[in-house]
Amino acid sequence: MTRFVLIAAALSGLALAGCSSDGLPNPFKTHAPKPAAVAMTAPSAGWVKPPPGYLPAGAIDAATIIGPPPAPDSPRGKAERVQFEETRKLVNTETWSRAIADADLSGKNGMKAFSCAAGVTLSAEATPTLAKLLLRMTDDAAKIYQPAKAVFQRPRPPVGNTAPICVPREDWINTDGSYPSGHGLIGWSWASVIAELVPDKASPILARGKAFGDSRIICGVHFQSDVEAGRYLGSALVTRLHDDPGFMADLAKAREEVKASKAKGPPEGCGA
After folding, report:
1. 28, pLDDT greater than 70
2. Euclidean distance between the first and the last CA atom of the chain, given in angstroms as a whole number
3. pTM of the predicted model as reported, rounded to 2 decimal places
4. What tens digit of pLDDT does each residue of 35-51 get?
5. CA 108: distance to chain centroid?
6. CA nearest 241: which of 48, 53, 37, 111?
7. pLDDT tens-digit profile of 232-255?
8. Is 223 within 8 Å of 87 (Cβ atoms)?
9. Could you give the CA distance from residue 203 to residue 46 in angstroms, rounded to a whole number?
10. pLDDT of residue 34
11. Best CA proximity match to 218, nearest among 34, 41, 36
12. Where are the alpha helices (DSSP H) in 19-74?
């Protein structure tokens, strides 16, 4: 936006505007660069509900597992507020772009990132059973974190301010609780399952799962303790799923798909 520096004309009582009286450009006029638009995700209206999960509602009591979030005036609560303010400096950086990609729970971007970490092409085409399994886990995750959000009702970091975030400022920002993080849960549970299928790449896969949740801190829609609580619940979800016959049957099919995909060579587009 263009702004003008107005200087009182002591003798004439006039303010200097765009040009001097002789029509020449005013040397006092300055031009501030127009700020770049903040890159962000698509509106949530495009969200497609995942297929039904494996577990019934209430299978895991999230509130009992994680306990309450840090109080706003506690040392942890204050530190997390500072972290939110500091991470606003990452707007439109490569880290910010990665966080936008990680916000997508449709599976496409997530599968691509985990493919690179695993060194195996994971996709709806190459590993269809695995792709659907992960989406079903997304539905299971919602049955776990949504009741906990309702219990704790922690306001999200951008509530009450206009700081840039990587998602549109829609109504859910104010109504959907911050604690625990659904993305933190989903990223860690996906990573845990994929690491089980590609154990020789467990470390980079789990690191990618951690980064998936941390992206919500970069985006500015979660505090760190939200994401950490989500990871605890992600571990709980995977543990519980291993007692579900339907999940275990799909996991066995997914293992064969991953084995076949791995035999075809590493995924493309992952860089050095």
Report:
1. no
2. 41
3. 0.86
4. 679 999 989 877 788 99
5. 14
6. 53
7. 999 999 999 999 999 999 999 999
8. no
9. 33
10. 62
11. 41
12. 62-66
CA gap 47, 106 in Å, rounded: 8
Quick check: helix, strand or coil at residue 229? helix
Q: Is the Cβ–Cβ distance between 174 and 221 less than 8 Å?
A: no
Measured distance CA(204)–CA(164) in Å, rounded: 30
CA distance 224 to 268: 32
Burial, 243: exposed, middle or buried (Cβ in 10 Å; 0-12, 13-18, 19+)? exposed
Determine the Cα–Cα distance for residues 242 and 139; give it in Å rounded to an integer: 16
Written as one string, the DSSP assignment of 139-174 is HHHHHHHHHHHHHH-PPPTTTTS----SS---THHH
Catalytic residues: 183, 216, 222, 226
Structure tokens at 159: 């509530």
Residues found in the chain: 272
Give the residue carrying structure tokens 């998936």.
212
The Cα–Cα gap between 141 and 137 comes to 6
Q: How many CB atoms lie within 10 A of CB 112?
A: 17
Cross-strand partners of 8: 15
Cβ atoms of 149 and 180 within 8 Å: the answer is: yes
Decide: 144 and 238 in contact? Cβ < 8 Å.
no
- CA 47 – CA 83 distance, rounded (Å): 28
CB of 178 closer than 8 Å to CB of 223:
yes
Identify whether the C-beta of residue 120 lies closer than 8 Å to the C-beta of residue 261. Answer: yes
